[in-house]
Design a protein that fits this description.
Layout (H helix, E strand, L loop, with lengths): L28 H8 L5 H12 L1 H5 L3 H8 L3 H10 L5 H17 L15 H22 L2 H13 L3 E5 L2 H15 L4 E4 L2 H8 L7 E6 L5 H12 L3 E6 L12 E4 L11 H23 L1 H15 L10
Parallel strand pairs: 1-2, 1-3, 3-4, 4-5
Helix pairs in contact: 2-5, 4-5, 7-12, 8-12, 9-12, 10-11, 12-13
């Protein structure tokens, strides 16, 4: 089947079951609205902005009243609540009531979902450690191992690998690139979107293009992956949105945890933990499949750099 058939809805791939993430904490609601707003319709944006700006007032409104206040429909209000991570409008109202109570109590401002400005560093460390651990657990639970294994096989056999990422995801792409280079895989991590597309159109069957985007809709990542897809390369998406735009052009979708956002710890930071777990799995899998060539290449890279890390012990 030709790859361009996917645009006509003809391609199928194994269904990935993704656990429903827990609703965001009340303190994370404003950050969640900022993160999700670009992917919302204008009517949904009005609902989201209203609840973020006046949680106390909106908590007192029925779904019909909020629809009237924002000039939208009840269905739009419910869809907005679900897009923000709540099972329904009732759950959103409870979160709004909690946020309003928190604001009225004069409690210390929240820096992250559960860290306040007056928390001691020991508590900050403990809370961040717990959050990182949960992100790793959620990502491991969401991954479809068949998709991981298929992506590993494609990477191991690929004559050339192109990686795409922007912002924090770019750092993850560079991390994977340097690992693969050290075991002899020809890999490019593109940070310039124009060069990414230029490189993508040079890819052919057998090559691999891998896109990393938590939102699943970053244009500078989606565009080169689509170009690679159209030119016959095997395509892989690492994303926190299994139904995001990027998955339309991906042969293999690797889903990361949908991280909890907050004022100073946005999804771009916490999602990176899940992305790093995925790319480490890919690297180890490729090293296993190509061990006969990977091991000598890794030794050669160590030897080539050994003079830059001289022993501190006296000779």
């Amino acid at each position: 089947m030709k790859k361009n058939a996917v645009r006509r809805g003809e391609r199928t791939r194994p269904v990935t079951t993704v656990p429903r993430p827990a609703p965001p904490e009340p303190a994370a609601l404003a950050a969640k609205v900022r993160t999700m707003a670009p992917s919302m319709t204008r009517s949904m944006q009005r609902v989201a902005e209203a609840v973020a700006e006046d949680p106390a007032g909106c908590a007192a409104l029925t779904v019909t009243a909020l629809a009237g206040r924002t000039g939208t429909s009840e269905a739009t209000v419910v869809r907005t609540a679900r897009l923000l991570g709540y099972p329904g409008y009732r759950d959103l109202r409870l979160a709004l009531a909690g946020l309003a109570a928190q604001q009225a109590s004069g409690a210390a401002p929240s820096l992250t979902t559960d860290i306040s400005v007056d928390d001691p560093m020991a508590e900050v460390l403990a809370k961040l450690t717990r959050d990182e651990r949960q992100t790793l657990t959620d990502t491991a639970g969401a991954l479809d191992l068949r998709q991981v294994e298929a992506a590993v096989a494609a990477l191991a056999a690929a004559p050339r690998i192109d990686l795409y990422g922007v912002g924090a995801s770019s750092l993850v792409a560079q991390d994977l690139a340097q690992k693969l280079l050290r075991i002899g895989k020809v890999t490019h991590a593109h940070t310039d979107p124009h060069l990414a597309v230029t490189g993508a159109v040079q890819l052919r069957a057998g090559d691999v293009a891998l896109a990393i985007t938590h939102s699943g809709s970053t244009v500078d990542v989606v565009e080169p992956l689509r170009a690679a897809f159209d030119h016959g390369a095997t395509t892989v998406a690492v994303t926190g949105r299994p139904n995001g735009e990027v998955t339309r052009w991906a042969d293999h979708v690797l889903t990361t945890s949908t991280a909890r956002e907050s004022e100073l710890r946005p999804a771009a930071m916490s999602s990176r933990t899940g992305q790093l777990l995925v790319v480490d799995c890919l690297f180890v899998g490729v090293a296993q499949l190509t061990y006969d060539t990977a091991a000598p290449a890794l030794r050669a890279s160590y030897e080539a750099l050994a003079h830059r890390h001289p022993s501190r012990e006296p000779r």
